[in-house]
Design a protein that fits this description.
Elements: H1 23-37, H2 44-48, H3 53-63, H4 72-104
Helix pairs in contact: 1-3
Length: 108
């Protein structure tokens, strides 16, 4: 969404790089965010010098399925919500794992 509409950079509650489910997505996001905040170009050509081939392939694949720009703010909020929900599920699973380890006497 940031690639398609850089003005979304000013939206509140944007996720952090580490909030993404994959390292490559987090890196793409971090590069886009930095370039937009620095007033730099975010074209495919400009990004190809910064992202590795796998990251570029991932970005191009994502861009081939663009969201409608008229709904970009809503789509961004939906993405943020999904990221937050995944983080909560991960925290819940980690807490459950820790409780089971305590109950069973397992130690890492």
């Amino acid at each position: 969404m940031l690639f398609l509409e850089p003005s979304l950079i000013d939206e509140p509650e944007l996720p952090e790089e580490g909030d993404f489910s994959s390292e490559a997505l987090g890196r793409i996001y971090a590069v886009l965010r930095a370039k937009i905040r620095n007033g730099e170009n975010v074209s495919i050509g400009a990004l190809s010098g910064v992202l590795d081939q796998g990251e570029m392939n991932l970005l191009v694949g994502i861009l081939q399925k663009p969201e409608l720009l008229s709904n970009s703010r809503r789509a961004l909020q939906d993405y943020i919500l999904r990221i937050r929900e995944q983080q909560e599920r991960d925290l819940d699973l980690n807490a459950l794992r820790d409780r089971l380890r305590e109950r069973k006497g397992y130690h890492s």
